[in-house]
Amino acid sequence: MTEIVKEPTFRNKIHIFNDRFHAGELIADKLLEYKDEEDVYLIAIPAGGVPVAYILSKILNIPLDLAVTRKLHIPWNKEAGFGAISWNDAVFLNEPLITSLRLTREDIERCVAEEKTIIKKKTKNVQG
Asked: Which of 19, 32, 57, 118 gets the most CB atoms within 10 Å of its CB?
């Protein structure tokens, strides 16, 4: 069973954490009931989630794995995205944004293909 743990005191605040490692420490304090549990797994999304998850994994003594994902970038703006793709080729699209940007299916398919290639390389490197 999947459980989402929420911390209301973190809502609507800025600058809660000094850095990602500090975030991991504070979040771990809220999850101590999971320490040393054999059926608990931690999945981190690179790159920002990995430092947080690393600390969580160490403090809680639970296994850590990665979920490699990539942003589907807007062709003329690599910093902005219209969707995402995961390590298992699941594609998530922001259809209203795609319509607003007038992206074609060819634009989308080209970006998906590019990001799939990058994910395959990254997961191959991680797996050895």
From this structure: 57
**Which distant-in-sequence residues (6+ apart) come within 8 Å of 116 by Cβ?**
85, 89
3-12 residue pLDDT tens? 777 778 878 8
Write down the domain spans for the chain: 8-66, 69-127
Per-residue pLDDT of the chain (128 residues), as tens digits, is 667 777 788 788 888 889 999 999 999 999 999 999 999 999 998 878 999 999 999 999 999 998 888 999 999 998 999 999 998 899 999 999 999 999 999 999 999 999 999 888 877 665 55
| Domain boundaries 69-127, corresponding CATH code | 3.30.1310
Sign, CA dihedral 44-47-49-54, equals positive
Tokens describing residue 33: 């009931």
Burial 81-93 (b: 16+ CB within 10 A, else e): bbbbbebeeeeee
Calpha distance 90→83 (Å, rounded): 11
CA distance 58 to 38: 14
